[in-house]
Amino acid sequence: MASAEPATIRSLDELDLIVDADSHVWDTMEDLYPYIDDKYSWAKRMLDTVSGHAPSTVFKRTTPTPEYGIRHRGRIHLYRDEDESYDLDVKLREMDDYGIDFGILDPGAGLDINTVTNTQFVDAIMNGYNSWILDQIGDDMPFKATMLAAPDRPRQSAAEIERVGDEDDIVAVSIPASGIEPPPGDRKYDPIYEAAEAKGLPVTFHGSVGSTPQAWPTVGRNAETMAEAHTVGHPLSAMWNLTTLIFRGVPERFPDLEFVYQECGLAWIPYMMWRLDDHYLENEEEMVMVEKLPSEYISEQFYFTTQPLGHTAANQKHLGQIVDMIGADSIMYSCDLPHPDHDPPQELFDRIKGSLSEEAVRGIMGENARELYGFGTV
Q: Which of 128, 166, 207, 333 is the most exposed place for a label (fewest CB within 10 A)?
């Protein structure tokens, strides 16, 4: 929690643990193909008909202008040779440069699974990704992973959770958060929530700007630039998803399930807590499955990762105030490697060390993630 006395930690070197709670892998269709179970033989035969199992023939993601500025470019070339693929060894070099001790691996291309309309491809991609990511994490590597769930295939996703949810390297269920129709508060998704709760796995929601037009046409289809689409795509999707989850009673029905919102920043959360509470109090008779203030569910069952921090360096105390309004126990540092718009740990540390207690700073930078995901000492 916030404190009148700032942290006594003066540098990152004094921290015992820094965890990147949103670190992406580079999951190409060519990578996943060998891991797709043979029971999806039709999908594999179809992928065989295109060179390199090209994902463009399956995924329908779209952005208004080229993505060069915010995707897999920039610093990534500092850590790999020109002909070297982006694998976990490259990621370890990045992490070492920043002093990051541990990474929670999230899907990359898999976050656009909501744009795949052929259900056999959806099932095959989900199955292949979950087997592939488990094979990437070697012994003693400082990684855990979220497994991919496909919202449009809730029963098949539940079966995948049953298949790999007990694996030591799987610590959460990742639901791609953009382009979900109906929204995640719908009972359609209960099989996913039920299976995740039974395995003791948090559910993470991570957006993708390329999937936003699937469910946000006024944002995605009418944007003229990548900057327009990316500015609002992640937070607006998060606001809508959070609203339906709480107002339709998902946390109430699954009281032991925890939720993580990734890559949509922090500043919108206090506003939404106030607005959700306000509308609950004004319309309580509509919400038969909501037993307490939405802000209480958020405090008890929801976590938020920090990236993107935004342009906050000029008034560093503001970020500490926002953390205080949300609750420091609910915040986890995220770098978002390898995206060029990532936040090195130093940037977050500099903004919170002067306004939060040492306990809060240590929690945000790594201990909250360790507690949530249950991994041991690095």
A: 166
- Cα separation, 93 vs 98, in Å, equals 9
Q: Would you state the structure tokens that stand for residue 159, as one six-digit string?
A: 């079966």
Sheet holding 302-305, edge to edge: 19-24, 102-106, 143-148, 170-176, 203-206, 259-262, 302-305, 331-332
Structure tokens at 326: 């949300």
**pTM, rounded to two decimals:** 0.93
**Model pLDDT for residues 58-77, shown as the tens digit of each residue:** 888 888 777 655 554 556 66
**Tokens, residue 42:** 């039709």
In this structure, what DSSP letter does residue 87 have? Answer: -
Question: Radius of gyration of the chain from Cα atoms?
Answer: 20
pLDDT, tens digit, for every residue of 75-110?
A: 666 778 877 888 999 999 999 999 999 999 999 999
Q: How far are the Cα atoms of 175, 177, 273, 352 from residue 249, in angstroms, in the given order?
A: 18, 18, 16, 33
Q: How many CB atoms lie within 10 A of CB 135?
A: 11
Q: For 12-31+59-119+131-373, CATH number?
A: 3.20.20.140
Going from the C-alpha of 337 to that of each of 100, 108, 132, 145, 229, the distances in angstroms are: 11, 11, 19, 14, 20
Q: For residue 366, give the DSSP letter.
A: I
Q: What is the DSSP string of 281-309?
A: HHSGGG-TT--S-HHHHHHHHEEEE----
Cα 348 to Cα 307: distance, rounded to the nearest angstrom: 9
